[in-house]
Amino acid sequence: MSGIKYRRFPLGGLWTNGYLFYDDGASENAGEAFFVDPGGDVGEVVDFLEAHKLTLKAVLLTHGHLDHIAGIEGLIPLVGDRIYISSADAPHLKSPSQAMQMALGMQCNGVEAFRTVADGDALSLGAFSVGVMATPGHTQGSVCYLIRLGEAEVLVSGDTLFAQSVGRTDLPGGDPGMLDASLRKLATLPDALAVLPGHGPETTIGRERKSNPFWPY
Length: 217
What we know:
CATH architecture: 4-Layer Sandwich
Shape: globular
Mean pLDDT: 94
Number of helices: 7
Distance between the termini: 27 Å
């Protein structure tokens, strides 16, 4: 992943992986950053931005489950409506589940101002290009983000793909058949591609192809 700088922030009660991508080089976009999946208190993220003189340009959401959006309010003052989520999962962002808030002991108010993404969209965030891959199954609107900087690239997989596992499909909106189709889409990606999941350690497409028991064959 040489050429792509990021920092992982485990946030919230479920230690959801949030990722801050940033450019601290000498380009015209130096000092710009974006964040993926703020799942809890983002105070540490804001401190990092300030300490490294980074400007947050956007927030990307892989899906709308509470443990991936609960810290969004802390970043709205920095990004305004530059919050990206699939249209299928947008209702979760607009009106977070009260039952889930009680179950997880989190509080999260709805967000009205945001932008939606769809399969095949390409976002330009400073020096980064971000490709959107629709990967429904864990939720109806789950997406993965293929992040590129020059020749380097990395996949942020949310709760679609984990190291040695995949996202559960027994929650409302989950669909095992759709998840299997999404995994088949990910199976077209190169083995060397690094994968940053929503929970647990990092992995690669090749490692999961070789030993993930849920990998499609």
